[in-house]
């Protein structure tokens, strides 16, 4: 039985490796079209579903902001996977600086009462919301000095379809690493 399980595990790994262009997931399959890389997938879906910005300027700003969100997410991953609890204070200080940038971006668009870019939600908003939720898991008070970001997150999370999805079985919160349960 153990040999079968080990052989099956190897078979699954080999099956996945056929699909991993850059040696990692995620993978999006849209009909016969395949994409890899999280942010490429995010931008593609944003354009496909009309949440990439309403004109070229907004689209470009959404890309820029999304790149900033990705920088924040990479720092979060580094903290989770490479750092230890002793460095948490340093990470939270850096997080506070990064969150300040997003607070400023929000303040420049309808005084922080709408979205990151323009009058409609973009994929950059969804990316930031997910990243903020991840950071709230590390530090539940990380947004306390950022009233616009706090209100923004609350506003986005109240969107009916997003709220429904976040409560669904399809999107249960799972531990990211064994040490962050």
What's this, in brief?
The protein has 181 residues and is mainly alpha-helical. It is built from seven helices and two strands; from the N terminus they run αββαααααα. Strands 1-2 form a two-stranded antiparallel ribbon.
Explain what this protein looks like in three dimensions.
It is a single chain. The protein is mainly α and 181 residues long. It is built from seven helices and two strands, in the order H-E-E-H-H-H-H-H-H. The chain has a domain at 54-165: Glutathione S-transferase Yfyf (Class Pi), Chain A, domain 2 (Up-down Bundle), CATH 1.20.1050. The chain has helices spanning 2-17, 38-48, 56-82, 88-107, 123-138, 147-157, 160-167, and strands spanning 27-30, 33-36. It has a two-stranded antiparallel sheet. Helix 3 (56-82) runs antiparallel to helix 4 (88-107). It is globular, with a radius of gyration of 19 Å. Its EC number is 2.5.1.18. Keywords: Cytoplasm, Mitochondrion, Nucleus, Transferase. Homodimer.
Order of helices and strands: HEEHHHHHH
Stretches where pLDDT falls below 50 for ≥5 residues? none
Estimate the strand proportion: under 5%
* Average of per-residue pLDDT values: 86
Count of β-strands: 2
C-alpha termini separation = 31 Å
Describe the sheet with the most strands. 2 strands, antiparallel
Describe how the helices and strands are arranged.
Layout: H1 2-17, E1 27-30, E2 33-36, H2 38-48, H3 56-82, H4 88-107, H5 123-138, H6 147-157, H7 160-167
Antiparallel strand pairs: 1-2
Helix pairs in contact: 3-4, 3-5, 4-6
């Amino acid at each position: 039985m153990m040999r079968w399980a080990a052989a099956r595990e190897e078979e699954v790994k080999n099956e996945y490796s056929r699909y991993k262009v850059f040696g990692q997931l995620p993978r999006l399959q849209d009909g016969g079209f395949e994409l890899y890389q999280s942010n490429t997938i995010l931008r593609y879906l944003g354009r496909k579903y009309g949440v990439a910005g309403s004109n070229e300027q907004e689209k470009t700003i959404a890309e820029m902001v999304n790149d900033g969100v990705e920088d924040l997410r990479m720092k979060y991953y580094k903290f989770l996977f490479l750092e230890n609890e002793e460095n948490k204070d340093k990470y939270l200080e850096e997080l506070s600086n990064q969150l300040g940038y997003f607070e400023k971006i929000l303040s420049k668009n309808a005084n922080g009462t709408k979205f990151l870019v323009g009058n409609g939600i973009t994929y950059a908003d969804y990316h930031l919301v997910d990243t903020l939720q991840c950071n709230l898991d590390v530090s539940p008070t990380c947004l306390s000095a950022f009233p616009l970001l706090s209100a923004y997150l609350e506003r986005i999370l109240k969107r009916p379809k997003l709220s429904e999805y976040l409560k669904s079985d399809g999107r249960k919160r799972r531990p990211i690493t064994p040490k962050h349960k």
